[in-house]
Design a protein that fits this description.
The strands form two sheets. Strands 1-2-3-4-6-7-8-9-10-11-12-14-15-18 form a 14-stranded antiparallel barrel. Strands 16-17 form a two-stranded antiparallel sheet. The chain is built from one helix and 18 strands. It has one helix at residues 2-16; strands at 24-37, 54-65, 70-78, 97-105, 107-109, 112-124, 130-143, 148-163, 172-188, 194-206, 210-225, 228-244, 256-258, 261-271, 276-287, 289-290, 296-297, 302-312. A hairpin with a 4-residue loop joins strand 7 and strand 8.
Length: 313
């Protein structure tokens, strides 16, 4: 799978150097993301959070015809852990690669805009573990006025997974499922800026592992200054309940804890020319941690940085 991801990167890099046709709207972006955690072992955690520090080179792309009736987009990355030696046996158990491809259709019916679609996401690891999600997108917008729009974004998925889970002596195959949904209002001001208050809900059911129920309130403000666009945002966690679902350990079944997290930051882009943009994002995340029995542990806070360059065709 890593070879496929590298091929994806080389293909996208080549496309960036080819003039784009006037009948389509396309872009390709390459860049890198960085995640930084703190060492909290002196406060009683069972492992050093710094082992999750990562460097992630990526490529992503989007393509639509000029009438914008459909869109295909994808992404690939490789995740590198500089502190891999902090993992057991010096081998990371966290995700090391991702490859995904998605398609959505645009259908206008009066004040309604439907955006159905489907996609696939593959997560790879250095150990005997992987996940493949098959996604379906039941998305829709409703335009109240020229300046106000209700929206519903998200997907439902079913997952084909392999790995060692609770009490497994060897990797097994499992079936997972879940959904993500965000819904709210977008308002455009007279000066062209916009604000988008909305709610986000996520549910994941990982067979012989755990369920996750999560709610957030999200707020994004968009403003353009010349060639620069800024999007300050906040994602405030309203509760993230993790409930154990072990098939082999009755004492673990039903144990739950609230590992809630919130983040605030900014993302956007700066135009270098008509076809080249610098993209960026940074945020700080506060994540509460608890043991399976509900005992409070030190927060697992994270700093995130992203910088990329985008070529528009």
């Amino acid at each position: 799978m890593k070879r496929s991801a590298y091929t994806f990167v080389l293909l996208g890099t080549s496309l960036m150097m080819i003039p784009g046709p006037s009948f389509a709207r396309s872009w390709v972006e390459i860049g890198a993301e960085y995640e930084q955690y703190l060492d909290e072992t002196d406060k009683g955690v069972t492992y050093n959070y710094e082992r999750l520090n990562s460097e992630t080179p990526y490529i992503r792309f989007s393509h639509s015809p000029s009438n914008n009736k459909w869109n295909i987009w994808g992404r690939a990355f490789t995740k590198i852990y500089p502190n891999e030696d902090l993992f057991t046996n010096n081998t990371t158990t966290s995700i090391t690669e991702r490859l995904e491809l998605h398609y959505t259709k645009m259908i206008r019916r009066g004040s309604w805009r439907f955006r159905p679609g489907f996609g696939i996401r593959y997560n790879g690891y250095d150990i005997d573990r992987h996940e493949t999600e098959y996604r379906f997108y039941p998305q829709v917008d409703y335009f109240l006025t020229q300046k106000n729009q209700l929206f519903f974004n998200g997907h439902w998925y079913i997952g084909d997974s392999r790995g060692k889970r609770m009490s497994d002596s060897a990797a097994q195959h499992y079936v997972d499922w879940g959904y993500e949904a965000e819904f709210g209002l977008q308002h455009r001001f007279n000066d062209g800026s916009a604000i988008r208050p909305h709610f986000y809900n996520e549910f994941d059911s990982f067979e012989n592992n755990y369920d996750v129920k999560y709610w957030q309130f999200r707020l994004v403000y968009t403003k353009k200054y010349g060639r620069a666009t800024i999007n300050p945002f906040i994602r405030y966690g309203l509760g993230r309940i993790i409930t154990d679902r072990s098939h082999h350990d009755p004492e673990r079944w039903g144990l739950s804890r609230n590992n809630n997290y919130s983040r605030a930051g900014i993302y956007g882009n700066v135009g270098i020319s008509g076809k080249w943009h610098i993209t960026y994002e940074t945020y700080y995340q506060v994540e509460h941690q608890h043991s399976p029995q509900g005992d409070e542990l030190p927060d697992r806070d994270k700093s995130f940085f992203k910088l990329g360059i985008q070529r528009i065709f």
